[in-house]
Amino acid sequence: MAKIRENHQNILQKIIINARPGAGKSELIKFLCQLDPERRKQDFHIGKLHVIDDFPYLWRWFEEDDILQKMGKPRIFTDKEGYFKHIYLWDLLVHLINLEYEKFSRDCKNADEYTVFVEFSRGTQHGGYKRAYPLLSDAVLENASIIYMNVSWEESLRKNHQRFNPEKPDSILEHGIPDKKLEYMYSGCDFVEFAKDDSGFIS
User: Fold this and answer.
1) Whole-angstrom Cα distance, residue 117 to residue 51?
2) Which residues make beta-bridge pairs with 116?
3) Which residue segment(s) compose the domain that 49 sits in?
4) Cα–Cα distance between 173 and 91 in angstroms, integer?
5) How many domains does the chain have?
């Protein structure tokens, strides 16, 4: 249930956007960024965009571990196959989202002109949305709206193939996940069960 910020800007304050990988979360944000600002505000109640996505944090861990391995040191976050060593690292990603929002709120002098998009995916293998949402800070959750893009596992797999550019594996719009890893981590999704209350709110 969307709540319009109660000020002269008449825009949504925060939108949390969830889906399986490859569902189109980043493509939707890209589309909104390219719209005329006045049309975006009038048609969708979305102001200037500030995007917080946990993928850059996650990818940096892969890069750091690869560098450490080349240095002859132990990998910190992931094993050689690219799986997290500890499930709590998924929790750490949520806390990094909270920290990024805290810094944005602190430093942005005209924050009321912005709609903040918080983007992440979670599969049941690592706790799902039932594990992730309670870790989001009150500051992030207050007056936030949620968009869930309900894409099947098969469509997620297809689009993951379609978007992958091996020359830009760190790209928000062009990264991909190996099939075996994608199935292991994201074939199961608990969002529909998590949000089964028909009140329009998530407790």
Assistant:
1) 5
2) 14, 50
3) 14-192
4) 23
5) 1
pTM of the model: 0.87
Strands (E), 1-98: 14-18, 48-53
CA distance 157 to 188: 13
CATH number of the structural domain spanning residue 150: 3.40.50
Contact 123, 86 (CB under 8 A): no
What tokens were used for 104?
Answer: 């944005």
Q: Quickly count: other Cβ atoms within 10 Å of residue 42's Cβ.
A: 11
- Which letter does DSSP use for residue 127 in this model? T
Per-position pLDDT tens, the chain of length 203: 444 444 446 899 999 999 988 888 888 999 999 999 999 999 999 999 999 999 999 989 999 999 999 999 999 999 988 899 999 999 999 999 999 999 999 999 999 999 999 999 999 999 999 999 999 999 999 999 999 999 888 888 787 766 655 666 554 444 557 778 878 888 899 999 999 988 888 87
What is the number of other CB atoms lying within 10 angstroms of the CB of residue 145? 17
* 5 assigned to some structural domain: no
Look-up of token digits 């608990």: 190
Domain membership of residue 87 (yes or no) is: yes
